[in-house]
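Late entry, written up from scratch paper. The run itself happened at the end of the previous shift, but nothing got recorded in the book at the time, so transcribing now.
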Amino acid sequence: MKIITQGTARKEVMPDVATLNFRFSARSTDRTSAVEQVNRALSLLRAELADADARVKSERASTGSWLEKKVKKYEVSVSLVVESSAGETITDLLQAGIDIADCEVNGPYWSVSPGNPVHQEVREAAIHEAIDRAKAYASALNGSVVGILEIRDEEVGSIDVRPVLFAAASARSIDSGAPLDVSSGPQPTEVSASVIATFEAGDVRV
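Output as recorded:
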């Protein structure tokens, strides 16, 4: 006889990694001038990243053009996604981005990293719950679980906390370059796992 059960587990933990999205953009009637303007702003952030406990996850550049009153104009933009697990580094980079002209910052977006041991912990807890349920069902039928035929993940993941969003231009106009207050930091995040398990039961008597 086959018994199929579901096991679930949840655990609330603090996020251990955050990403910041930086976007540098400039407009001009001269494409070269726009590129140079973006590169100057970008070099300021790269200087901050040189000694920071962070890594660039992705970088993308784009150039667009359009006609405005018969004058050709250009927009050049570069987007960077930066990741770090150090709260102080996130704060420093966020402040740096706000202080750089032609830079917009979104984030930080906090989450639980894929390598965090908590994922394995909740997965194992979910499996144990599925086993306990199967044993309970088999016992109710005067039988016992004699083997496991299959265990598969139904859902494994974490719910990220809501990001804090900042735009450089508006932040400067509000606070005139004063230090950024992000003392609230990340909030606890729920990591969950759900498994479906199929067992073989023996000596079942109804």
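The helical segments are 31-50, 87-99, 118-140, 168-175.
(Scratch paper discarded after transcription.)
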